[in-house]
Amino acid sequence: MQYRSFPATGDSLSVLGFGAMGFAGWFGPIGDNDAIRSLHTALDLGVNVIDTARAYGRSEQVVGAALRAWSGPRPFVATKIEPRGPQHQFGAPPSVHEVFPKGWVTESCETSLRELGVDSVDLMQLHLYWPTWGHDGYWMDELQTLKQAGKCRSVGISIPDHRHDSAISLVESGLIDSVQTILHIFGSEPLDTLIPICQANNVAVIARCVLDEGGLTGSLTEDAEFPPGDFRHGYFDWTVPRRAYIAKVDALRRYVPEHASSLAALALKFGIHHPGVTTAVTSMHVEEYARMNIAAVDEDPLPEDLVWRLRTSHRFEINLSNRDAWQVAAAEDVAAIGAGAGVS
Known about the structure:
- The strands form 2 sheets. The chain has an 8-stranded parallel barrel with strand order 3-4-5-6-7-8-9-10, surrounded by 6 helices. Strands 1-2 form a two-stranded antiparallel sheet.
- Helices cover 38% and strands 12% of the residues.
- Helix 4 packs parallel to helix 5 and helix 10 (263-273) packs across helix 11 (287-297).
- It is of the alpha/beta class.
- The protein is globular and about 50 Å long.
């Protein structure tokens, strides 16, 4: 396992982090014992970063139980303030007053600490940020107060979708210690601007979705079905055109096994390649996934010319916001057609 420094605290973080979103059951049902075993396996194999969120169902409770049962060195624990108000957090930016009303940042943090069973976390992130909110305000004051009071050692934000550049001005403000952003072979835009700017400002980068919700593992087929409640149900049914997506995945197979043992390994190694990426979190709620992902990042790094080729020849620009918007638009079109209306 490789490790990189988290600038604000000096902690040495594993380049692969444990994403606990899977503990919510959004990638299929999982029992607490199996979830805890997967997390302990990852910790045994050198992972020392756990990323969860107040919005991930029972995830914080399960992570807390795993921490209490863990006898090794304490890992770096990050969680997120739950957005309140309108749930259409993607697409059009809501006002900060709707999402984080006065007192809510503090209340959500206190709830997270109780659920996790800790007095403090290493990183507290806003689970949503839009540049229309600016840099200052009661919501930022509350976040900074939590840090000053020792409720968290560092603060940051999680960018809601693929528009990575929405956080640049906040990064340059000096008010935050980390940014979490989507980064994968098809969505490599953060490598263009956000990540170098974070490096220049000593702001950590937490990459997420490096396997693109499992699509970059090569297991997605045209007839694969995901039940309602599974995150992939909306993502691969509405956000991405599935046939085109599979064709783009198939175009990556030429690099396996010469440069990576599998498509998943190729994606993981791409996600951690840039030194400005502090850690990349993936859902490792299944013990087998944890072992496979950790083995992948221990392989030889990708050559620079291949990384450049992946960035410039395999980018596939999509946006998570479409998960909500396309489904609504499709329903409206169907209704219009049924009523005999023409669609231009």
